[in-house]
Design brief:
It contains three helices and 17 strands. It is mainly beta.
């Protein structure tokens, strides 16, 4: 861990003379209690990433010619309470940017994941991940295309193009190939498209994705999220649908609100539901609700506390309930 930080600092120092290079990160540490029905539950735990995942990264750009810049970014997950470093498994990209837009290649987040996280203000207490990431739609399921260690959403060996923003609109397209062809089957591959709009108080994101595995059903999904800043509060809405052919289908909806309730204090409330069907019958229904309070101590430091409850009702009507309470500190640098 120490050697990694020294290396990152050295990269930033060496690059500063010829390029704009930034060392950045996020540390999140606190105490949490998680309990699940019919499971072995631990007592209160001190851990990392209860509100937002701890991370460290370096990003930079350098002028090439004619208004074109070369850009790069590497980012990896940290364990803020045990000193662990997962390697640069979140982002590792090289690219070009200019008036034509931006082209990046490497390990990067998909348009679907960007719409999911950015459009719904996702965090450790938001119910959307607990509800929407069902067994038939969790991107980490195909490790040759996705980086399974990251949770979900970032594709390996991918290329992505993002258009310039015009009139508040921009679009993106991404393709990744698993490189895992066999003598009888072509490689797994992934395609994703996104369309985003942001102007004034309104933000809307729409994205689709299609994952073709070497064997098994192709998974197709779409998501649409939107936000509106009312001044006294910001409202978020979301909807998603996944079709994995014989494996099943899912549909989900979410609604949440972020309300400034006092100076530097923001209260968030959210609800999400997702129904997974198999052969036309209800296979499971997930309902999740969460609440969190965040105190922005200063521009870099925030203190948080939150609670989330998730009920997973199976076909036989049995219900597995998971509750999470956590409090801690998040520091951005």
């Amino acid at each position: 861990m120490k050697k990694t930080l020294i290396a990152l600092a050295a990269v930033a120092a060496m690059g500063a003379a010829s390029a704009e290079v930034t060392l950045y990160g996020k540390l999140d540490a606190g105490v949490s209690v998680v309990n699940t029905t019919n499971a072995v539950n631990q007592s209160a735990q001190i851990g990392s990433g209860n509100y937002e995942g701890s991370r460290i990264g370096v990003k930079g750009s350098s002028d090439i010619a004619g208004g074109v810049k070369g850009v790069f970014q590497i980012e990896g997950g940290l364990g803020a309470t045990d000193g662990s470093f997962s390697g640069f498994g979140r982002v590792a990209t090289l690219g070009l940017t200019g008036s034509f837009g931006t082209v990046t290649a490497g390990l990067q987040w998909t348009p679907y994941d960007s719409a999911f996280n950015d459009g719904l203000e996702n965090n450790g207490f938001a119910p959307t991940f607990a509800a929407f990431c069902t067994s038939i739609h969790c991107d980490a399921g195909n490790a040759t295309v996705f980086n399974a260690t990251s949770g979900n959403g970032n594709t390996k060996n991918s290329i992505q193009y993002t258009t310039p923003t015009i009139g508040g609109f921009n679009a993106s397209a991404l393709y990744a190939n698993g490189g895992d062809a066999t003598a009888s089957a072509s490689s797994s591959n992934y395609t994703g498209f996104g369309l985003n709009y942001a102007a004034g108080p309104v933000g809307v994101q729409f994205a689709t994705e299609s994952l073709k595995p070497v064997t098994g059903s192709t998974v197709n999904a779409w998501i649409m999220t939107g936000s509106y800043n009312l001044g006294v509060a910001t409202a978020f809405l979301g909807a998603e649908a996944t079709d994995a052919a014989a494996a099943g289908k899912s549909t989900g909806y979410s609604a949440s609100v972020s309300v400034p309730v006092a100076k530097a204090v923001t209260l968030g409330l959210g609800y999400a539901t997702d129904t997974q069907t198999l052969s036309g019958s209800a296979d499971s229904k997930i309902n999740s609700a969460g609440v969190q309070a965040v105190y922005a101590w200063n521009a870099a430091t925030a203190i948080y506390a939150g609670y989330r409850k998730t009920d997973n009702t199976a076909r036989d009507a049995s219900v597995a309930t998971t509750t999470k309470f956590a409090t801690g500190v998040r520091y951005n640098f």
